[in-house]
TrEMBL record:
<protein>
    <submittedName>
        <fullName>DUF4865 family protein</fullName>
    </submittedName>
</protein>
<dbReference type="InterPro" id="IPR032349">
    <property type="entry name" value="DUF4865"/>
</dbReference>
<dbReference type="Pfam" id="PF16157">
    <property type="entry name" value="DUF4865"/>
</dbReference>
Amino acid sequence: MARARGPLPRLKKERTMHAMQYEMTLPADYDMDIIRDRVSRLGHALDDWDGLGFKTYLMRERGVHGSPVNQYAPFYLWNTMEGMNTFLWGGAFQGPVNDFGRPAVRQWTGLAYEEGRAAGSPAVAAVRRRQRVPDAVPLSAFMEDAVGEAGRLAAQDGAVLAAAAVDSHRWELVHFSLWDHRTPKAPGEVFEVLHVSQPGRRELPRGRQW
């Protein structure tokens, strides 16, 4: 006779971390002061957005820090999927879509998050490094290394924060960090930070995300 089972234990509901970014690549002769003005006028709109850890309003300028393009490329860390979905499908995302066209929205599952040594300083630069997850590596060891790298970045002088996340469809790892100076030594693509909305930054789960 089959033994009766009791009710399954309820899992504790916790905040999660989800990274998101889209890129608007602009003409080579585009006046990037238009982007600076746009963020100056509209950047406060997400300063109290429920479910948002932070949004960094980022741009790259052709010829600056080796950038080959002019680009507007906001990067987000979300505390909740509901907050992200409300942004994407509730109407707020339609503004940049109307102005620049609909971009591909990249998403990564959070691996690690750390506040940096300069956590209380305003961020002026961001570094993003994307890399392929090799086929022949044990995933557990590779992801642990990614967690360690986020911690090493956060421990550097001038680091405001550091995060790591993974896209398990493309098998792509992204490292993202913010800095209080314009010439960070971290490897990767350097962006100018125009504004940071960070209503839920304190609630972002620290350290390893599993």
